[in-house]
């Protein structure tokens, strides 16, 4: 949600900043803007719409050369996505330019104060107040090398809410200053050059040495004085240094038309990497960071999974395995609802937070609520060093690599895999499963990347179907057991990418209402459970198929190889390889991803950056 970049060094700041914005455009694409600073002063340009609009404007009227600058790609919260509301925001005297991610909750109060004391605000954003406040705070301070950072500290102490701010001042052509509270900010450390960004992707082409800023810290990057970090009161502070283990190529399309297609293709590797090295010789699962003892885990008597969107669907899939393998009751909750319903939590509750970004504000707030109630927190996350892992008692990283397309695919599969590892670990620690039983399931999991690969190789009929369904007004999805969350996920993918009405239902619910939606030719995608698993369920789903067919529905059936019971009732059968019941979602979700991608593409939509969405939702 909003991408921020700052640069100071020897290269063209504009080039570095615009390139960084391009890599972060997935975070928001309502508008984009840049500010550069050189010995002559400050210059900015900003445009509504995608980054391409800004690039066009910069090509027509170039900004002066500079080696320090900032940039922003916006996902609008306060104020419409137009040129005026685009960032950077500049103070009334033109001395300061600021970019911001997050929400300043007390902005109305600050805006009143600024207006009462003579400042005229030009935009509808909450961000603009920070530019004026920073300019005023700077003016009130004596001259000193870190004057801009000191002014930033003054401003941050007055702000409420969640924010990352990055700013430049016209009198400091070698300095960029940043600050963060509950919103991501990383620094990149190159040779004689420094970067600030919402995400390492912005500077990965220049350096892989990163430093994660802590909560309530101000950072100054200065061409001469290097990098300096303090808390909001000016006390020296330290960030968390790390080396990024993927390179710029991982965040590029690599010949695919869309990042989403590349990421769908990367799913076998995402699952394999998430499993790699996670099982010790003794059958123990190796978590990345554990501040919980085996005793703590033995005491767990209830599990809550909290997550949003696709990550929530991963949790819904995992619930079946968690309860089956551990025998611990498990509830899966939308993180945005969790803390408002006063859940019953205590020291023996394990809360599993699932998040690709590790920054989703709804999940983060739910996590903090659980922590306040003394629950143990384990996070499953794809972004090293992000806020959720830092605030959790234990962490298991999904090793899916950077996911750039806004719609999550490979992280979904990696999240399910990671949840399964956690479930197996709990089952082993609590003595519900023996080490060899755990190892047997892990071996089945290890077989899944090859089966996902096989599934990917047979997607041509799905692509054809996608082109055919491009004008469908509605598509329904049905599933049971682990197929139910996959139906929900299939519908979500279609809604967000194709902007087509889509709904997922539990097969058993069909007769309780949704069947009224079936009209002649309504496409209905059914995820059929394996006849070899709980075969009673298989029969029930086949009944559902017949019920829909009898009412004129167009049946698209996803069934495992060899399941011929469905043939007579299906308009199209999409085959997936045979897999254990609980692991089948790693396969059945693949055709649904491909279908949504293909329909969106056929409708001429931007698959990677669907309208109104952003990759990382850092506001509530
Ligand atoms: C949908 C999608 C979103 C995210 C959700 C949570 O394709 O990607 O629904 O799953 O916004 O994001 P994270 O996982 O970053 O917490």
- Note the main sheet: 8 strands, antiparallel
Ligand species: fructose -6-phosphate
Q: Per DSSP, what share of the residues sits in E-state strands of 2 or more residues?
A: 15-25%
> What is the terminal-to-terminal distance?
11 Å
CATH architecture of the largest domain: 4-Layer Sandwich
CATH topology of the largest domain: Glutamine Phosphoribosylpyrophosphate, subunit 1, domain 1
What is the gyration radius calculated from CA atoms? 25 Å
Number of helices: 18
Please, how many domains? 3
The global form is globular
The residue-averaged pLDDT reads 93
> Class of the largest domain, according to the CATH hierarchy?
Alpha Beta
- Provide the helix percentage: 25-40%
Enumerate the spans where pLDDT stays under 50 for 5 or more consecutive residues. none
What can you tell me about this protein's structure?
Helix content is 35%, strand content 23%. With 620 residues, the protein is an alpha/beta fold. The longest helix has 22 residues, at 435-456. It is globular. The site of fructose -6-phosphate has 14 residues, from helix 9.
